[in-house]
Write a structure and sequence with these properties.
The protein is mainly alpha-helical. The longest helix is centred in the middle third of the chain and has 38 residues, at 125-162. A two-stranded antiparallel sheet has the order 1-2. It has nine helices and four strands, in the order βααβααβααβααα. It has helices at 26-29, 39-49, 66-69, 74-88, 125-162, 173-178, 199-206, 216-232, 234-243; strands spanning 8-11, 59-62, 100-107, 185-192. The chain has one domain.
């Protein structure tokens, strides 16, 4: 995937814009032993700091990041890890007033069926190369989504324990520190073809190619599927219930045809 799209080159203006690390990240920047939940975030931050000196790195070349983070979830997970680490230290965080954090994880992964396992002859070189990039991307995307759900479950469990009657008489500072956790409830809404209950529709969508141009029918069915998946999502329904809201479904309008100018012969 990374070789399919042309790289984008940017001028690096690092060290010329008076950038400073946000105050809420400062407690971890120079720490040799940050809280466990902030370790991965600090590793990412250290990688970004090398671009702060534009005399050494005047250009930044960006390539398709599908292999590293196809869903763009890493930044979300890093932010949640830092927020959790601030609570571990008893420090304020930017999201202390937030009641809910809602994340829609939109994954357009398609899995066209193959008949490789019906033949003795293995798949060809091109198919193997495609799988060599596709399989790691799919696995990482799955893990990123599950990490978000794990974070939501951990925060919820610690809040329930902290607020339980069994913990109420406990005055142990160490135990109290272990149960520090953000108050915000996380809702991870998974929007992917695998969530469709209509298997025939999922099969149709899985056959669609990864393309910048799709036929009108495919666009209409993709839009309708997205609405169905969100409306039927247990997490979205839990969000609506917690907010006392009612889900109202509007029909999806057909895709508007785009006129293609014709060149005279």
């Amino acid at each position: 995937m990374a070789v399919a799209l042309s790289p984008v080159t940017l001028n690096n203006y690092g060290s010329t814009c008076n950038y400073t690390v946000p105050a809420w990240i400062q407690p971890f920047v120079n720490s040799t032993n940050p809280p466990r939940s902030a370790a991965r975030s600090m590793h990412e931050l250290a990688g970004q700091r090398v671009y702060q000196d534009n005399s050494q790195k005047p250009y930044i070349h960006l390539v398709d990041g599908g292999v590293s983070d196809n869903l763009g979830m890493r930044a979300v997970l890093d932010a949640l890890e830092i927020i959790e680490s601030l609570h571990d230290l008893g420090l304020p965080s930017p999201l202390d007033s937030a009641r809910r954090i809602i994340v829609f994880v939109v994954n357009s992964l398609s899995s066209p069926p193959t008949d490789w396992d019906k033949h003795e002859r293995p798949p060809g070189t091109v198919n193997v190369l495609l799988q060599a990039t596709g399989v790691p991307i799919d696995h990482y995307s799955y893990e990123a989504t599950e990490l978000l759900k794990d974070t939501a479950a951990r925060w919820r469990a610690l809040r329930e324990l902290r607020e339980s009657k069994a913990f109420a008489p406990n005055a142990d500072p160490a135990a109290d520190a272990l149960l520090r956790v953000p108050q915000a409830e996380i809702y991870a809404v998974d929007v992917s073809f695998s969530q469709l209950k209509n298997k025939d529709e999922a099969k149709y969508l899985n056959k669609q190619p990864t393309s910048f141009a799709l036929p009108g029918e495919a666009v209409d069915r993709l839009r309708a599927a997205a609405g169905t998946i969100i409306e039927e999502s247990p997490e979205f329904r839990r969000l609506a219930k917690d907010m006392g809201a009612t889900i109202v479904i509007h029909p999806v309008a057909p895709a508007t045809p785009v006129p293609i100018p014709l060149r005279p012969r």
